[in-house]
Amino acid sequence: MHRIFQTFIDRLSESSDVVTLRAGMVEIATALDLHCFAYLALPQRPGGMPQQITTYPPAWAEHYLRNHYERLDPVVVQALGGTEPFEWGLELGQVVKSKAQRKLLDEAAEFGIRCGFTVPIHDGHGPIAAVTFAANDHHTAKFRQRVKEHQRVLQLVAMYFHAHARRQLIPNRKVDGVQLSPRELECLEWAAEGKSAWEVGRILGISRHTAAFYLDNAKAKLGVRTIVQAATRLAASRVTTK
To answer: What is the Cα 48 distance to its own chain's centre?
Structure first.
């Protein structure tokens, strides 16, 4: 398992776009015998379009976004309400509050998505996101067994994937009008959470030296001398997307 996870981290670190990022997730999901996944980042602004990286059937993924199903999806509602991973599915007694939610889950089942395991991500660095691993057939018992065996690993996979997905999906960010690269902002955000350069490197799949390099660049651009000062600028600033 350690080798599989390390290979996944290496793939994320080498990824240059959403396509290669998705391929890295496909590789580890397949290795864990979980062949269907979806990453959904909710929009920052009301009415905005969520961002999605998935292996769901394209017709379903497009239908989901086109109809703004994220606004009523009971899985998203539960992900918004807490940080604990959870299983879902009509066969598992999934709580639905409306006919529209029942219809959504029934439609998903028609595309082979009958149950899943979702990891909510509330990291304070942007919109709430969720990573879901789903069963793409009727073998829900087999799927649930895989989830039980690999639950801890799947949580880590979700967090690492999210950290890299943010870099690809939000390519340009500013702090007080100062343009930081995606990596500089990522490293600074984690440093502001109290993470050391070594810890930031572990989270992002880069070396401690590389994380320190990005942090030094961020300090220089912001005109400060310490990480604490840079983090203070970040906290006091309105971070905007270019």
So the answer is: 18
Q: Which of 130, 153, 169 is the last residue of a domain?
A: 169
Distance CA 211, CA 187 (A): 6
Phi, psi angles (nearest 5°) of residue 111: -95, 10
Q: Is the pTM of this model over 0.90?
A: no
How many CA atoms does the CB half-sphere of 214 hold within 13 Å? Answer: 23
pLDDT at 181: 81
Does residue 178 sit in the same domain as residue 74? no
Q: Quote the strand ranges of 90-172, DSSP E.
A: 115-121, 129-134
* Separation between Cα atoms, residue 36 and residue 26, nearest integer Å: 8
CB 191 within 8 A of CB 226: no
**Which carries the bigger pLDDT value, residue 229 or residue 17?**
229
Which residue type sits at 132?
T
Q: What SS3 state is found at 157?
A: helix
Distant-in-sequence, close-in-space partners of 196: CB < 8 Å, separation ≥ 6: none
What is the SS3 assignment for 46? coil
Please give the pLDDT value at position 116: 93
Q: In terms of C-beta density within 10 A (0-12 exposed, 13-18 middle, 19 or more buried), how is residue 215 classed?
A: buried
Same domain as 185, residue 164: no
